[in-house]
Design brief:
The protein is of the alpha+beta class and about 120 residues long. The chain has three helices and seven strands. The chain is globular and about 50 Å long. Residues about 115-123 have low confidence and may be disordered.
Length: about 120
């Protein structure tokens, strides 16, 4: 099954585990579609093949690993992520946690990096 967003790529956030220090690094990305269990993304900087990643997109988190990372003419990198697990309903879980802990409820756009919030506000 092919799902493509080429005419209107969707903003997302990707986190990758750094090989040198084991720390997570985050970056904005765009989702261009899904082919079977492969998520198609574009990012500003390369992420090496076999790197474990998670992609936060809408109300879901995709967990998997980078299978392909190739440069494109436009100066961005095309990634194919082999999705191993998909977590959905994140907003309702966050709201439940906030109610149980007596915290204010933050939306996904409140937790996104600043450059991502700018992209979301333009949509």
């Amino acid at each position: 099954m092919i799902t493509a967003f080429e005419d209107r790529p969707q903003a997302a956030v990707i986190q990758a585990v750094g090989s040198a220090n084991g720390m997570l690094s985050s970056a904005s990305c765009t989702v261009h579609g899904m082919v079977g269990r492969r998520l198609l993304l574009k990012v500003a900087e390369p992420i090496h093949a076999s790197t474990p990643v998670n992609v936060k997109y809408n109300d879901a988190m995709f967990l998997g690993e980078v299978m392909i990372c190739v440069p494109e003419v436009s100066g961005v990198w095309r990634l194919e992520i082999k999705v191993e697990q998909t977590l959905t309903g994140l907003e309702s879980l966050i709201a439940l946690r906030a109610r149980l802990l007596g915290e204010g409820i933050a939306t996904a756009s409140d937790r996104a990096p600043a450059e991502m919030r700018v992209q979301l506000s333009r949509q």
